[in-house]
Amino acid sequence: MQLTSPQLSIGKLVQAQAPDADQLVNKGVESYQAGNFRAAIQSWKAALELYTQKKNYNNVAIANENLARTYQQLGENEQALSYWEQVNNYYRSQQNWQKVGRILTEIAQAYSSFGQTGKAINFLCGVSDAKNIENLACQQGSALKIASEQQDKAGEIAALGSLGEAYRLRGNYDVAIQYLEAAKKTNNQTYNFAILNSLGNAHASRAQLWNLRTKSAQQQSISKAREFQQKAKNDYQQALEYFQSSLKEARQQDNKSGEIRSLLNLIQLFYHSKTISLIPQNQLQENIQESLELLDKLPDSMNKVYAAINLANLPAVDEELTSPLTQCLAKLKLPNAQAKELFNKAINISQRLQDSRSESYALGALGHFYECQEKKYQQAWELTNKAIWLADQKLKAKDSLYLWEWQAGRVLEAQNRNIEALPFYQRAYNILEELRSDILIADRDFQFDFRDIIEPVYRQLAQLQLEFASASNTSNKQLSSPALNAALTTINSLRLAEIQNYFGNDCILTAINNKNVTEVVEDNTAFISSIVLKGKTGVILILPNQERHLQWIDKNQETLRQEITNFYTGLVRGKRDVNYNTKDAENLYELIIRPFEDDLSANKITTLVFIQDSFLRNVPMAALYDKKDKKYLIEKYAIASTPSLQLTSTQKVNIKSSRALILAVSQEAKIDDKLFEALTNVPLETKAVQELFANTKKLENQEFTISNLEQEIQNTSYPIIHVATHAQFGTIAEDTFLVTGNNDKLTINQLETLLRQTNNSSNLVELLALTACQTAVGDDRSTLGLAGVALQAGAKSAMASLWSVGDESTANLVAEFYSKLRESKMSKAQALQIAQLKLINAKETEIDIQYNHPYYWAPFILIGNWL
Fold this sequence. Notes:
56% helix; single chain
């Protein structure tokens, strides 16, 4: 469990004022200060009963406040909120507004601690979309507004600090830092330590984000990569200074609990900033030694439990730290005997405190140690089961329960007990499905480690399910086992989780439909779904008659990834190579399509919809080549793709509208020091669209600005939005944007906001066309962004390109696509197929003999609704 920032508690534990309750309340205060929260609760509940009997409502409020704060310390937020609400109601009835403001801050902190940061911000300020805190007017009745009106400086600092924490958890680090800096300016000795810690964490998290952007820029060959790298380094340096200041502050106040918190944050910072050697190894060793010595001096408390676990879990210096309780480290920093001693110490302390949550965590952590470090699976199994029982039966602590269910599954699988492992993986998956919207949206730090702490659960479960489904499948016969149905559900859920993680918001949840894949299969349409697993890849064909067929590609990830990269780069080289060598296209056809050919032929399939996984998303499926028939796949089938059937509208819509909005930039542009060449053929492309759609509005070059776009879509709804400008898709959503006029950019999140907050609702945008996209080669996350673009922008379908062709061929393809699309019985997939075939047959029609090369037609893909 990561120790982050202490809460900015305004209130203090209050001693009893009624003589007959003195002993009970004071005993509770002593227990609390000793870290024995359960004993404190017992004493205060007894005192509360006495106060209630005597109708001493002021002391009832005080006891409730103490109980709320204690339940919050235990992580039992629902109980805490119940008591806070009672306290809030009492002070409102007394019109004690200063106390009301402070209690609202406490309530907000409770919501933040279990992921509901939007609610927290609402209690604190009432304005949840702050871009800058200058001139920000909080709403009447919010904590910060009340503190300001009451001239309550302590309340104001706590509200500012809590807002900073809420925005940090939300991933809005710039605003978080502004609020925290505003709180720090007051230089309040009581709160300095907590604020400094929060600032350190905010800068460390922002540094991680800059690191992601650096990686994205490097893959796009953008010169900004160095600048992003420097910004990461600056934020790490700032985090170091804040953690060091918080350590100094804690020592001056003789706050030993705060001191170990700051030391642990410094230790974590060493691992995260290892690439820039911010903290020397001898300093790391010194901080670890200081922490171990300090641990023995601390009174028993939950923080002591988690500090012991964190120290025991530290990896060796050359190990990459992501999530120590989900990754099997080759070697720990501390000797195994010392680590084991720390785990046992954590268990013993949690048992003395009678705190089931921390005990469950400590037991699970020791189980992980036995699983990974000593391969003693029986001990790992016993400890993990105890952790499960405590988290499930006593606590319903689902945020950690999924870890232990997953761990139990891994322990069993390591012993080749796969049948027994399956239900544990299934339960871990079920919990993640329930928690997903919170952990992928509310806490941006989780997004950094998605591939380590979330994604493997889905993949490992799907692998077991598929292996069970195919156990009796000696030939490619029909599969209809419950295991295969379950695997398809798991794979689809992974798609949802990945998209939600990429965009980092919950707008996609509104688009979910709960239809099973078989309910949306039409005659002549088949689905091919893939999932990349450890050592092999599963490919599943789903036919209109609900038959399913499973085929394995028995190649490890790196081998298959390299084959796809070779295929992709061979296509992109087409601008230079007149004759296309189909060898790579043939190899992939044999792996993905050939095993299903007989089934596709027998069912008279004419349309294939691909639901691809990982690096398979980079495959322009249209260009796969059948060496037997000497045909590209697009010559045999209409082709579409979708990130997830659950997020795809399956309603047939005929686009006969005469209205389209064209957004175009033909001039050279420079964004973030990257030069985007002039798209000289854009005028031809936009002219073709205008000729087909009489009521067309065009915003081109300098006219294509965010403000003009906003004004246009507020006044008029457009079923088709055609974008003829460079569009970049990066590793993260922040680096996914459209190039607009005046060397500006429109991020995909900004586009989503514009389209969803105007009269142009998601029901009215049928097709979003992006004809000059660029995805990062070899980066499947950038292709994930492309796959989710229509969804994020609120459109039912997108026609987009995997690379920018920038040629007259695009105008030809676009004109043919729209022309066929307006024919009543033509699906979008069929319209794109005919447009691509027109270029393939360019020699016969004498458009341009080069256009038959897949470089010109293969990058165009249809995403989402293919009907």
